[in-house]
């Protein structure tokens, strides 16, 4: 099973957006995920989560990490 783990490629990189918005984005994902997995939220809400994550700072974090990689 250990062979299936992939190290986090951005573990040692910095993102200003992550410092300012990362906690809020993580909380949002944590709020949505269990509801979708258990069926309390419809799977269609996954698209809403992705949009909210991207517009809430996720795309900015992704761009900052991609630049450093």
Brief sketch in words of this structure:
The chain has 69 residues and is mostly helical. It has one domain (16-67).
Question: Topology of this structure?
Answer:
Blueprint lengths: L15 H23 L6 H24 L1
Protein described:
The chain is mostly helical and 69 residues long. It has one domain. It is 68% helix and 0% strand. It contains two helices and no strands. It has helices spanning 16-38, 45-68. Helix 1 (16-38) runs antiparallel to helix 2. The longest helix has 24 residues, at 45-68. The chain is globular. The two termini are 27 Å apart. The model has no long low-confidence stretch (mean pLDDT 92).
Instruction: State which percent range the strand residues make up.
Output: under 5%
The SSE string, one letter per element, is HH
Overall tally of structural domains: 1
Number of helices: 2
Average pLDDT, all residues: 92
Number of strands: 0
What ranges have pLDDT less than 50 throughout 5 or more consecutive residues?
A: none
- Secondary-structure class: mainly alpha
Defining traits:
69 residues; 2 helices
